[in-house]
Amino acid sequence: MQALLNKLFKKPSIYLSNISPQLPQFNRVLWSSFEKHVRDLVKQYKCFMFIQVFFICLMKKKGKCM
Q: For a surface tag, which of 13, 16, 23, 36 has the fewest beta carbons within 10 Å of its beta carbon?
């Protein structure tokens, strides 16, 4: 089981920024920084449970979040 988990977590394709289309600036800066922070926490604590992140768009312009 551990070998399977190691294999899965080493794949860059499982990053959430690759799964859900976002604004390029969001993926390249904000989300990338968040993913790095989570990976650093996992290295530091060896066990880390990530529950959920959500984003609420409060302002819309032409159907897109600002």
A: 13
